[in-house]
Design brief:
Elements (H helix, E strand, L loop, with lengths): L7 E12 L5 H6 L1 E11 L2 H6 L8 H12 L7 H15 L3 E10 L11 E8 L3
Antiparallel strand pairs: 1-2, 2-3, 3-4
Length: 127
């Protein structure tokens, strides 16, 4: 096994949830579909050596954390949802070095047809 560290990207692609977010009362009452992508970067050296999920970034836990935020109390802004997801992932996973999260909101209440709006934010652990 190599003595070099590595930076691994773990991608969660298109996790789908139902949430009650938005500025308008109707959005918070009726809810809507949200899709989430996350790119999670961490040093996987210990996980590779041990081949043990407890040394890895557990994607099942990450998906659960994302779901808790999307399906919990309503937020007005998708930007707030994305920030809360990133903040929670960084808090939960000390090995996580950086992450990018994209949230797509469907059923956007505007007069034009829009398939979805998407917000992306990245966060990096300070040394």
């Amino acid at each position: 096994m190599s003595k070099h560290s590595s930076l691994t990207r773990l991608t969660i692609s298109n996790a789908v949830y139902f949430g009650y977010h938005g500025v308008r009362n109707e959005e918070q009452a009726l809810g809507g579909k949200y899709e989430v992508d996350a790119d999670l970067y961490y040093d996987s050296t210990q996980a590779v050596v041990s081949d043990d999920v407890s040394d890895a970034l557990n994607y099942e836990e990450a998906v659960f954390i994302i779901g808790e935020i999307i399906t919990s109390d309503p937020y007005n802004l998708v930007e707030t949802i994305v920030h809360e997801i990133l903040d929670s992932l960084m808090d939960r996973f000390p090995r996580l070095q950086s992450a990018s999260v994209r949230v797509r909101k469907h059923s956007v209440p505007v007069r034009q047809y829009i398939e979805y709006i998407e917000v992306e934010q990245s966060m990096k652990r300070e040394s």
